[in-house]
Known about the structure:
The complex is a heterodimer.
Chain A: E1 7-9, H1 14-21, E2 26-29, H2 35-40, E3 48-51, E4 61-63, E5 67-71, H3 76-80, H4 91-97, H5 102-105, H6 110-116, H7 122-129, E6 133-137, E7 144-146, E8 151-153, E9 156-157, E10 164-171, E11 178-184, E12 194-201, E13 206-212, E14 219-222, H8 228-234, H9 242-267
Parallel strand pairs in A: 1-3, 2-3
Antiparallel strand pairs in A: 4-5, 5-10, 6-7, 6-10, 8-9, 11-12, 12-13, 13-14
Chain B: E1 2-8, E2 11-17, H1 23-30, E3 49-52, E4 55-58, E5 71-73, H2 82-93, H3 103-116, H4 122-128, H5 139-152, E6 197-204, H6 208-215, H7 218-223, E7 228-234, E8 237-246, E9 249-262, E10 267-276, E11 281-294, E12 298-310, H8 312-317, H9 319-341, H10 357-376
Parallel strand pairs in B: 1-5
Antiparallel strand pairs in B: 1-2, 3-4, 3-5, 6-12, 7-8, 8-9, 9-10, 10-11, 11-12
Helix pairs in contact in B: 2-3, 2-5, 3-5
Amino acid sequence: MKPVDFAFDQPATLAQASTMLATEGARAMGGGQSLGPMLNFRVARPARIVALHGLAECQGVEDAGDALTLGASTPHAAIEDGRTPDLPGGILSRIAANIAYRAVRTRGTMGGSLCHADPGADWLCTLGALGALVLTWTPRGGRMVPLSGFVTGAFRTVLQPGEIVQAIRIPRPGADFGWGYVKACRKPGEFAHAMCAVLLDPTHGVRRMVIGATGGPPVVLEGDRADPAAVEGALKGAGLGPVERRMQAVIAGRAMEQAMQAHRGTRA
Amino acid sequence: MSTLTLTLNGRPCTGDATPRTSLADFLRETELLTGTHVGCEHGVCGACTVVMDGQPVRACITLAHSCSGRDVRSIEGLATDDVMAQLRAAFTAEHALQCGYCTPGMLVTARDIVTRLPDADSERVRLELAGNLCRCTGYGGIVRAIMRVLETRRGVQAAIPPRLPAATFARRKRDEGVIPMTAPMAEGATGGNTPNRMRQVLRIGVPASAVWDAVRDPELVVGCVPGARLLSREGNQLRGEMTASLGPIQASFQGEATVRYATDAMRGALTCQGRDQASGTRLSGQADFTVVPDGNEASRVEIDMHYALRGPLAQLGRGPVVQVFANEIARTVGLNLQARLRNEEAPPPPARLGAGRLLLTIIWRALRRLVSWGHDT
C-alpha cells in the first residue's frame, strides 16, 4: 500500500527539529526503516514527519575511554563494518551485523531503533544489558536516561514532545567481563521470537540479563535474579504464551552460557 | 507536491514528488525507470533494492524527498558497471533467473556482496541473500553465480566506506526515566495466555449485583473503554467504534457486536467484528464474561476472550504486543467502571493509551466515513 499523506520536514539543526516535533501529530524519523513499513501499511498515519538524518549534531562518535558515545544517527552498517570504535571482542559489530538485512542496516540508525522501541529490536535488548544511557536534547537542556528507564511499553518511550535523542553512551565493561547475546529466528533477519543479552561485569559488580521480544518493555533481571531458571516466572504478564516463555528460558540459558565462557576466557 | 534534486544514475535529476512518495515510486512513475521492482513494500523482499551513495538501500521504505542531494543508482544506472557486467554474465551462465521479478534487487545485492565481502564463501552468500526473496528460480543458481564472480575477484580489497568522524557529546543530568519493571506484572488469574486467547480478571470494589446491572448497560460499559463510542443500539445489536494508538501505530475500528446475557448466572457473551478502514485490518472476537461476588462489597468480572486480528496490524503488531496492550485497556476499563459505579471521578486516562487532538481527528474522519457508509446501505 501507499502511506497516507503527511507533511515532511528535513531540519538542519536540533533546535529546528525540536520546534517541528513539538507540533501535534508530528513524528520523528531516523533512518525510517521501521516507520517506513508502518507508513506503507497505514498503521502509522502521522500528520507530519520530521526526518532527523540531516542533523550534524546527531552524528559522529566519541571514544572517551570509560565509555563510547555514538551519535543517534549512526547507521547499523557503520557499526557492523567497524567504522566506529567498538567494545572488546567486536560486540557491537556482531549485534549490528544481525539486524534485519544489509540494505536496511545502511539506513537504519541506533537512535531511531531505540526511539521506535519495538520489543523485538536488537539494540533495545543489548544496549539495555550493557547499561547504556540515552542522551536527549531539548531547547532547555537534555537528560541522560538509562535504557532500563527509557522504554515505557511496546513502541513507547519517556521522550516528551520536542525531545530528541542525540546520542547513546555505552559504558565500557571491566577487563574480565563476559558477554552473551542469543536470539531465536526462523529466518535470518526476521524479528526474533526470543532474545536474551547477558552482561557479567564483576569489576563494576554487574550481573544483568535482559530479555526482549516480549509484549512490553525489555525484562531486566539483575544480580541473583539473572538466572535462566527465573526467566519463565519473570515473563508472566509479558504477553507470552507458555511455549514462548519456555523458548525465552532456553535462549536465556544459551546467552548465559556464552557470557560465562567469555568471562572465563578473559580470566584465563 | 514539491521539487527534489538528486544525482540519478550519474546525471543531475530534478523532479516533483509528494512527501509520501517512496524512492521506488519516484523512480518508476516519475522517472520511468521501471527496472526497480516493487514487491512487499515493507522492506522484506528486496526487489526494490537500489544503490544510494554507494550502499544498497530499500527504495520502497526510503522517501524520495530524503534522497535530496544524494547519489542514487538504479539497475539502469549500473548497465556499464564492470562488476555488474560480470554478474550479468554469471547469472546467465548459472541460470540464476527465471521470471526476473527479484532479479534487479538480487543483482544490486549481489554487487554489494562481491565488493564488500570479497572473501565470502557460499554459506555467507546465502546469509546475505536472506534479505532478497526469490520464489521461482531458487537460490542454487543465484548463489553459484555470485560465487563465480567472487572467485574471479579474490584478493581485491573490500570496499568499505570511511570511518565515522569524531565528535563530542556533552554529559547531561541523569534521569532514571520510568522505574524498570523487574517484578511480574499483574495478569489474568491463570497467567497462561496463549496466542489469540486472553483471560482478564477485573477486581471491582462494588457489589456484584450493581456491577451486573452496569454490565447490561452497553452505553455505560462502552463509555468506560478508552477511545470507544457506541454509535447505535437495536436490541442486542450494537454498532460502535474504537480508536487506539500505540506509539506510532494508530487504529480506528468500526464494527458491530451482539451481546447476550444470562441473568441468573450473571454471565454473558459478546461477539464482535470490526475493521480499520485505512489499513484494512480486520478484528473479530468473542468475550465471555461472568460477574462473581467477592464478599459483599466487592466483585470480580472474569472475561475470557478469543480474537483474530487479520491484515497489516496483525503483521506489524505481533501477538505479545497485542496481548499486553489489551491488558492495559482492560485495566483502564476496570478502573473506569469502578469509578462510575462509585460515582467517583474517572481516573485520568493513562497517557500511554494515547489521546489528544490527533485521536479526535481520527474519530472525526471515521465518523465522516460512517455517514457516507450509511447512505450506501
